[in-house]
Amino acid sequence: MNVDIPYLAPSKCLCYELLTKNNYDHLGSLFEDDDNPFVDKRFKNEHDLLKYTLYLLHHGPYHKNGGIDWLIRLKGTLTYIGVLHLYDISQEPNITQTKLTGSCTIGFAIKQEFRRQGYGQEATKHLLNYISTHFSFQTVLSYTDKKNKAAAKLLQGIGFQLNNEDYTLSDRYDYFEWLNK
Asked: 30, 40, 107, 111: least surrounded by Cβ within 10 Å?
């Protein structure tokens, strides 16, 4: 599906490249040997990663089950260090929400050797600015496994608030909301 997606400009230290059929293998090389249980298992298996990529590309960003992924690179290099996700941008409620909030959902994963260096924070803050500029969502949602304390700390450090009351899978995940002001 061909849909125009607003350009995600580089941030201070990072560049962002839309995930496509031509570059998805970089995502696999980032996480194929990563034993972190919080990294999406589909990124660790070439067949599953191709299915994931084709699914995203087929549905497009504005389908109820679609989304946009960007590979994250260090600025001025060809070094890939992670991925950013933006999904649930169709304005239809997803299955984890108990109410429609005019929200979208974001996520991120950073390659092991680049974690805890501020790249996840920079990329996530940059994505929030992008969302504020190009979309009219009231709320940005991000959720993590309850055991993923590093992601929870990052999200809370950039202004997300914990809210497990409005989401049905809160026994398994912590849900964080960022209000677009």
From this structure: 40
Predicted local confidence at residue 168, as pLDDT: 83
- Taking only the tens place, the pLDDT of each residue in 77-100 is 999 999 999 988 765 555 454 444
Give the three-class secondary structure for 4.
Answer: coil
Q: Structure pTM?
A: 0.88
Determine how β-strand 139-145 pairs with β-strand 161-162: unpaired
Pick the CATH number of 14-179 from 3.90.650.10, 3.30.300.230, 3.40.630.30, 1.10.760.10: 3.40.630.30
Strand-pairing partners, residue 45, are: none
Q: Quote the strand ranges of the chain, DSSP E.
A: 14-18, 67-74, 80-87, 103-110, 139-145, 161-162, 173-179
